[in-house]
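Handout, section B. The chain below has 176 residues.
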Amino acid sequence: MSLDELKELSPKERLKRLKELQEEDKKEIEEAEELIKQSVHDVEQEEIDEVVRRIKKPELRKVNVEDLFDDKKEDVKRDEKKEESLEDKAETAPKPTQEEINSRIGNYSLAREETYDKVRGLVEKAQQGTITQQEQENLSFYKKQFDDVNPDYMQGNDRDVVERTEQLLDKIMKYY
């Protein structure tokens, strides 16, 4: 309905129609806000999933059950052989360049900072009371990941990021 058509209505009808239009607009705005919230959540979840994909999983290795029950003498001999073979492998293994080492350190630092940002965002949402079950599970996952990290072996910004993340995780885990 156009503005001219509204002007032609009686004041009572015009008021009624304007209130109806206002209510329709209000519903559309609420739906758009809900869609925005869901989209933000989806984007955050995708970013979290990307960080999780970048985390290396430990390699599994086969265990020979018979080796578990060998004599101690055989254990010593086998250990000596392993040490020798490990030393040989270490000597012949390609040494990473300083550039490769710096790149790896940079990747780990970036992942830690991204994780900190995600945890901080989830803590803010939790303080507002808007955290979902999936986000609670993500927090638990991050907590398990950081339980194995020892900041005593880190320096500078990496250490600060890990300590801040652990503090945030401890703070939020009290509530969930």
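Note. Helices lie at 3-8, 11-54, 65-68, 72-92, 98-128, 133-147, 156-173. Compare this with the example in section A.
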